[in-house]
Design a protein that fits this description.
single chain, binds zinc ion, two-stranded antiparallel ribbon, mainly alpha
Length: 92
């Protein structure tokens, strides 16, 4: 914490000179996609030459979840309500 009465513009500027944001660096994966350094690739699931994420299984899992969520929404009747709201002309 700083003493309020002692803060002048010069001191504030010097303190904040280290607070600048730095753009995230991107590395190119062997599959050609951009990825963060020291992170597994989201496209192919490779890290340091090894497959660490099963991308196909993950996609299947996500598809199954989406399907189930859609089904639950349809059964609860909210999906039809949402569609009706879309069809309704907007006021004003
Ligand atoms: Zn990759």
């Amino acid at each position: 914490m700083v003493v309020r009465m002692r803060a002048n513009r010069s001191k504030t500027g010097k303190r904040r000179s280290h607070q600048g944001l730095v753009a995230a660096r991107a590395a190119r994966c062997s599959c050609g996609a951009l990825r963060l350094p020291h992170r597994a690739c989201a496209e192919c699931g490779m890290y340091r030459g090894k497959v660490v994420i099963d991308v196909v299984a993950r996609a299947k899992r996500q598809a199954r979840r989406d399907k189930r969520r859609e089904k639950d929404l349809r059964e609860s009747g909210q999906a039809s309500q949402a569609k009706q709201e879309d069809k309704m002309p907007t006021a004003t």
